[in-house]
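As a warm-up, study this chain.
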Amino acid sequence: DHRDLHLSLRRQRQMCIRDRVSIDPRRRGYSHNILIPRVLAWVRRLALLALCIAVIISGPCSPWTPLAMERANEGRMVLFDSDRPDGIKAPNGSPHPLVESALLLHKLGFDVARSVHLRGGKVLIEHPVGHGEHSMWPIRGREKHSTLFDTTIFKDFRKDVPGDLVFCDQCMLGAATRKTTQWFCNNAMYDGASKYLSVQCSEEDTDDHPFPHTASLVGKNEQGEWRSKGSDEYKPPLCRAVALAVPVSYTHLTLPTKA
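Now compare it with the structure written out below.
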C-alpha cells in the first residue's frame, strides 16, 4: 500500500514541477529505505509515471568522507580509497558489510535513474568532489581519497546514461564552507544544471556569502560532536537552484508500453 510510504508531496505550481516525491530515510524513517523490497518496488513504479520528469539522487556520502583520512578524526574507518575504489575487504577476505551496503544502496538508486533516463527524463546525481593527489581539489593528507564516481558501479552507470559533470561551491548557495560538489547530469539535465548549479566561490564578503570562511568540518566541537554533522543539509538557496534547473529545456517523455 503506497500509504505506508508516507511520501511527502509538495505542489510546485510556480516551478513547472508537478509533484515532488522525497525519498528520505533520515527524516522519514525505514518507510523510505529503498533497501526494503516493497519500498524499492513502489519507487520503481513512481519512476514509470508520466509525471516523473526527473530523478535527483543525493545518497549518503559518509562512506567516502575524506575526513576519515584526517588524524584528528580517529575512529572513522576508511572504506574506499584510490587503491581500493570499490571498497576494502573484511579481515577474512570477504566483502566488507559496510562497503556492500553502501554500494547496494547507490546501485539501486542508479537502476531507478536508468529507467527515468530511458523515458527521456532527467538525471541529477550529487556527490562531493575528490581531494586525492590527482584531483582538481587536492588536499594534503588526503592523497588516496576517492569518491562514489570512481567506483565500478558508477562507471557502468555512465555507460548506460551519457552525461557530464557540473561543479559547484555550495558556499554560494547557503553552505557555511566552500563545500565543493560535483553533479553528474545526463544530457537532458545538463543545460539546467550548468545554468543554475555551476557556481564558484566569489571570494567576496557579502551578507549572503561571508568570506573568508571560518567554519571547519574537521574534528569534533566542544560538545564532542563531529563538526561535519548536518553539513549534508541542502540550504534553501541550493534547493531553489535545483528546482530551477530541472524544468530547463523540458522535453516530452516517452511512456512505457505494455508487453
